[in-house]
Amino acid sequence: MPQRRSQLLCLLFFLSYAFTTIAEKSYYDILQVPKGAPDDQIKRAYRKLALKYHPDKNPGNEEANKKFAEINNAYEVLSDSEKREIYDRHGEQGLKQHAAGGGRGGGGINLQDIFSQFFGGGVSMEEEEKIVKGDNVIVELDASLEDLYMGGTMKVWRDKNILKPAPGKRSCNCRNEVHHRQIGPGMFQQMTEQICEKCPNVKYVREGFEVTIDIQKGMQDGEEVVFYEDGEPIIDGEPGDLKFRIRTAPHDVFKREGNDLHTTVTITLVQALVGFEKTIKHLDDHIVDIGSKGITNPKQVRKFKKEGMPLHLSNKKGDLYITFEVLFPTSLTEEQKTQVNAILG
Fold it and tell me: DSSP characters for 39-89?
């Protein structure tokens, strides 16, 4: 009976561990590398993903910040040989027990330290591994003023090269290895040899697909919507990025200047003198009252606060400036001239 109970407890422990492992997202999956990936591949994957999800590139994006923390946590474990061995054998629970038992790494994760090792802290450009990347593709995108005011989406057609399998093998992952050969007592000759692997052959095939671009409220000219690794591919390297650079398309009514809007409204001479009631329709169809009870001079500019463009990633808005043009009559009768003189003379 005690033996049966012991076996049952072992089974329950195994199932508990298995379910925990399944529920957890693998650190290898987070870094998008296979379990047996070498250190240099893990390093490259971390660098690419950390750049993609860094908070400076994703201001206000909580999902990106969460992803960035996951990436750093995964790299902090997989870049440490001792922690990686424990993780491979016992998962996250094993790491927690190791940390609780005083193993190195129990002091917590310093995301800044990890990130700075790659981007500006302690690693020279010579030491940092150079990653071969394909060309970035930059597309100037004319976004409507309505989309930039309210937010919206645009669809464009994209043609690009796609790497496809091809018959045969090719040389790949080439690297230079240094060898030393003894040529005499205490004398050695240094030799450099290029070593390559054999990989399945590939070819470029041109394919087209539709890309949906999210236009955020208040985006400025020159800001970019980036699709990482959707640029031009390169054999034995990483694809470049696809970047849509925002430009404000011309509008029939409004002109944008930074966060402000400008427009011109024409009124009659009578309206300029005695006042008028008038409204204009804004970009989202709400109505703005621009009427006046006083005298309006030709070329007079009035400011309407918070009726301009929304500021990107902010609840604030710019202002609307309206320049008033006064429409003068082309001619007056003698009687009209007499009346004008009597009133204004």
Answer: HHHHHHHHHHHHHHH-GGGSTT-HHHHHHHHHHHHHHHHHTSHHHHHHHHH
Q: How many domains does the chain have?
A: 3
Q: Is residue 126, in this structure, part of any structural domain at all?
A: no
CA distance 45 to 33: 7
Q: Cα–Cα distance between 245 and 138 in angstroms, integer?
A: 7
Q: Which of 227, 248, 269 is the last residue of a domain?
A: 248
Chain segment 184-220, per-residue pLDDT in tens: 777 777 888 888 888 899 999 999 999 999 999 999 9
Burial 139-159 (b: 16+ CB within 10 A, else e): eebebbbbbbbeeeebeeeee
Q: Domain check: are 238 and 262 in the same one?
A: no
Full-model pTM: 0.61
Question: 98 by DSSP, 3-state: which?
Answer: helix
Q: Is the dihedral of CA 58, 62, 68, 71 positive or negative?
A: negative
Same domain assignment for residues 244 and 272: no
Is the distance from CB of 180 to CB of 191 less than 8 angstroms? yes
8 Å CB contact between 218 and 311: yes
